[in-house]
Amino acid sequence: xxxxxxxxxxxxxxxxxxxxxxxxxxxxxxxxxxxxxxxxxxxxxxxxxxxxxxxxxxxxxxxxxxxxxxxxxxxxxxxxxxxxxxxxxxxxxxxxxxxxxxxxxxxxxxxxxxxxxxxxxxxxxxxxxxxxxxxxxxxxxxxxxxxxxxxxxxxxxxxxxxxxxxxxxxxxxxxxxxxxxxxxxxxxxxxxxxxxxxxxx
Amino acid sequence: xxxxxxxxxxxxxxxxxxxxxxxxxxxxxxxxxxxxxxxxxxxxxxxxxxxxxxxxxxxxxxxxxxxxxxxxxxxxxxxxxxxxxxxxxxxxxxxxxxxxxxxxxxxxxxxxxxxxxxxxxxxxxxxxxxxxxxxxxxxxxxxxxxxxxxxxxxxxxxxxxxxxxxxxxxxxxxxxxxxxxxxxxxxxxxxxxxxxxxxxxxxxxxxxxxxxxxxxxxxxxxxxxxxxxxxx
Lengths: 201, 232
Hints:
The complex is a heterodimer of chains A (201) and B (232). With 201 residues, chain A is an all-alpha fold. Chain A has helices spanning 11-14, 17-33, 37-53, 57-65, 69-83, 85-108, 111-121, 132-161, 169-193. The model of chain A has no long low-confidence stretch (mean pLDDT 89). With 232 residues, chain B is of the alpha/beta class. Chain B contains seven helices and ten strands. Chain B has helices spanning 45-52, 74-80, 97-107, 112-125, 141-153, 171-182, 218-230; strands at 8-17, 20-30, 34-39, 60-65, 68-69, 81-84, 159-163, 187-191, 203-208, 211-216. Chain B is globular and about 50 Å long. The termini of chain B are far apart. The chains are: A mainly alpha (201), B alpha/beta (232). The A-B interface holds A 4-7, 110-112, 137, 140-141, 143-144, 147-148, 151, 183, 186-187, 189-197, 200 and B 50, 53, 55, 75, 78-79, 82-83, 85, 87, 89-96, 99, 102-104, 106-109, 133, 135-137, 151-152, 155.
């Protein structure tokens, strides 16, 4: 499972969340514009050096990639089949670098600080009818409930396995979706009960 | 933290989900410090509890808290009444423990130093100091429920409604949550099937098919409840 904030005092921990979000957006775009594997490899190395410099360590970088290794394997195999080894390696290096770059943000920034930065940064959307407070709360909820959804999926998978349905994606997906929808109603109630007001100044 | 009590009043309240009536012409005033709501599944007790802080509005009749109508002044009512849900996983909004405790206080517009002080107090009160910066999903069931209670308590409500707070917990965590409820300065209204939890309460209201079957001290009210459930 992906990791969240790790307390620390590195330059990245001290950097303003808004600046980190902008840097991630810029860095992510640049990664997609890089022309070849050597340049991409150099950026990946730089990202790994930042993990070292911030005290997070290479283990934290690896932890960002571990949950998606199977997806990487499937994508790599597909790319190799369609376009060859070099394209496959380029594709996977690009996504791995992007994931590790994003990990630097979540590992060094409290979600509440990110939410506050997003609310401030997206204020310009308000005249267009979008509510920055709702958008930033959605981000917090996504980070909060990814592990909960994983747990629900695991519970449903176990329940189906004992009934002999261990290979049916539909048998797992439908109860997960139903439970998730029920949970979303309960979460909406809880947010309301805790005095959330998206229109507060 | 306040210990003042906001009077809660149900005036001829009825409610239905579709064709199924869940509350039928309920009139009650709640003033006691510890009130339990019991009843069979589907008897209307959770709907009754949700009406206290305006999560559910009545089809007919009126619910007031400290003179505020839940249908008209929902936001103000929720400053008087906190709500702890059965499953803490559905109540914890932020991924990190300290951030979740701070969520309600931010909604109240408190400043950062006050939020930090109150968060630290609450973490110490429930033995969660060591989990301050931990992901909430890694806590045990009891710790999650204590975190959920902390998130409500820091908003300093006068009344806290608990909807089956011990249902998903093992014995040890059940006891921790029961102790936490017992130690509250606030009025506690507890919906539960856990009859041990409410033995020392001031008042027990028994619901059956949307009506009040008994409204009394724990012993006579629970005797009436057991009689209705078992026929003995």
